[in-house]
Amino acid sequence: MTANNMSAISWVGTALAIAIWDWVAIALSQRRLGYLTKPAVTLALMVAVLKGNTSPKSPLTWIALGLLFALIGDIALMLPRERLKLGLFAFMATDIAYLAAFNFTAPPVMWETTTVAMVVAIIVGIYYRRIVRALHEKGNDHLRLPIGAYAIAVSLMAVGALLLPLHGELEHGAALAVAAGAVLFLLSDGLLAWHKFVRPLPQGTLLVRITYHIAQALIVTGSLVLWGRVMP
Questions:
Q1: Is the alpha carbon torsion for 187, 39, 96, 181 positive or negative?
Q2: Distance (Å) of CA 164 to CA 41, 80, 82
Q3: Taking the chain, what is the end-to-end CA distance rounded to the nearest angstrom?
Q4: What pLDDT, in 10s, does the model give residues 79-136?
Q5: pTM of the entire structure?
């Protein structure tokens, strides 16, 4: 690992330290503090990626772009008057940017590829149907299309990440970290949707924030190890 990557990883550590502060703020209902800590975590992760990115041709450029959109989404969803659609579209852009990074080189075509795609599609499809029913029951049918589009985007992102360990040329542990981060990202979105549209979860906001922050940290750390160098 290069010196640039070591500096980048230290910024990931900073992001996790701020994240813990953010979780405490949520647990203590310190909403004003959360206005600072929530975007600060994403901003620190963005700095980490920029520190580790030594070439505009690197997939890390797409990861940095995804974090920029995530920062916009973070702010949109924490405003006193939540901008849900803006947040959805911002995080959809994050998913697309991550998908571009994860597919910088084409994934191998094998039976595992189809299996992973089918499993993710089935799980997300079943979950989406439950969310749609809840939206209808509460008179929020206007959100059906944006949430459906987002579900497709995040599913594709998760599939792209889960296929990374199948790339023989990539460092396996780092690829697994990115894949685990994508699964947690998907889980965080699922918890958020359930908490917001179906029924409130005990400590739902805290659960969403913890899974989201760990997901982003895993994606960033794994990506730094995989691509924190000049790409040919």
A1: negative
A2: 25, 38, 35
A3: 17
A4: 767 688 899 999 999 999 999 999 877 666 677 788 999 999 999 999 999 999 999 9
A5: 0.92
